[in-house]
């Protein structure tokens, strides 16, 4: 069963997507995970978003820091560390849906910065690292990392239980034999069930573009057109 590109993309103003540039009260169920973080929780100096380590969300993988020459290129503090998965084939972060106060629709955002953490960044242009992203059992996107200095970000609006348990939400990295999967940070934001009605249990929405309408101060932006693809299908 296929879906049109229009069904698989969404366009929105930042404010409607709950991209909050203020501290995030836990009562909202927001989860911001700095993957591979070894230190204590912190508040990002640019976005004022509170991040925690990923130790409570995954038990596999290896912690790394990006190389020193790339640290000044990281967009945010969460890009300085990452977790890689050289073994296991499929490795998943599990985020309890109960944290959202019973809500089941989420915005999921994943960030990636290679930063030559393994000394192989120089070969990425000719031999990119590629791996698959899943939300539960549903395919999300094929990640391609071709530049160690670039920060990649991908988003989806999904319903908990789409390809998995109705009481949990998982984000999985799957090794496809083209380099080691890794991730820098994960952000999960519960949403009202009446927002984006096209996002249902067997169909998620991927980000097409986002516009910053008239803001006079800094807002984070994620703008990728890579989601316009019928290969992005989230279903059972």
From TrEMBL:
Q: Does the keyword Signal apply?
A: yes
> What is the recorded membrane topology of this protein?
Single-pass membrane protein
Residue span of the signal peptide, if any?
A: 1-23
What organism, scientifically named, is this protein from?
A: Oryza rufipogon
Q: What is this protein called?
A: Malectin-like domain-containing protein
Q: Which Pfam families would you find in this protein's record? A: Malectin_like (PF12819)
User: What InterPro entries would the database entry show?
Assistant: Malectin-like_Carb-bd_dom (IPR024788)
Where is it located? Answer: Membrane
**Annotated Gene Ontology cellular component terms:** membrane
Q: Does the keyword Zinc apply?
A: no
Tell me the keywords, alphabetical order: Signal
All copies of the Malectin-like domain together span 33-218
